[in-house]
Design brief:
Elements lengths: L1 H11 L10 E12 L2 E12 L4 E8 L4 E7 L4 E5 L7 E5 L17 E8 L3 E12 L2 E9 L10 E10 L2 E9 L23 E5 L7
Parallel strand pairs: 6-12
Antiparallel strand pairs: 1-2, 1-11, 2-3, 3-4, 4-5, 5-6, 7-8, 8-9, 9-10, 10-11
Length: about 210
């Protein structure tokens, strides 16, 4: 009987796969672990995938910053230097490079159970792991359960990279979640980036398989 119950639960206890909007804007709290370093800060994560635009911008409490603006519509990616915010790197994307769906990996993710979050909230967690060009990448998303309906509200987003003994982990807690279309100005290229302020480099993107 216990085996039968376990088998039934193995099928029926798995929640409906999440369906997360590819158009969104959110304030978020972020933590970064890189070797022996730890950073915590706040910022924003916004995307309009149909228009091929996405931005992550976070300021941390030790003058450390993460800023990446993906403008696939312009064939460019812009990154601010993590320590010197007045320096910007401009990357030219290879012609024809596609912007993958932000949450496309969820179609291949595995449900790994519930996790306690914030001391009182239980979230359903989905993980996906792949290796591309020698880089191991694991992504996880914690979502609020909606019963028989697919989850639409992400709570926490995790990314883990490791390569040749070097690793980095980024965790993003969504403080707000809006699926309205972000204003165009959200994706404006910072004035530090164009012209002489930009260091142009070639950039190779990892494409999830």
């Amino acid at each position: 009987v216990l085996l039968l119950v376990a088998l039934i639960c193995a099928v029926s206890c798995v929640p409906v796969r999440p369906v997360i909007s590819e158009v969104f804007e959110s304030r978020a709290f972020s933590e970064v672990r890189n070797g022996t370093h730890f950073y915590a800060g706040v910022g924003a994560f916004a995307c309009n995938q149909p228009l091929r635009r996405c931005i992550e911008a976070f300021d941390f409490d030790v003058f450390f910053r993460i800023f990446q603006l993906d403008r696939f519509d312009l064939g460019k990616v812009y990154e601010a230097d993590s320590l010197d915010h007045y320096k910007c790197r401009e990357f030219d994307l290879p012609s024809g490079t596609k912007m993958e769906p932000v949450w496309g990996w969820l179609a291949h993710a595995q449900y790994v159970g519930q996790r306690e979050f914030g001391g009182k909230l239980m979230v359903d967690f989905w993980n996906y792991t792949t290796t591309v060009s020698g880089v191991s990448l694991q992504m996880g998303l914690g979502v609020m359960d909606r019963g028989n309906l697919p989850a639409q509200r992400p709570v926490i987003f995790e990314r883990h990279w490791s390569y040749d003994g070097v690793f980095e982990r980024r965790t993003m807690e969504f403080l707000e979640w809006g699926t309205h279309t972000p204003p165009d100005k959200v994706f404006d290229v910072p004035h530090e980036c164009p012209g002489k302020g930009a260091v142009k480099e070639d950039h190779t993107f990892l494409e999830l398989e």
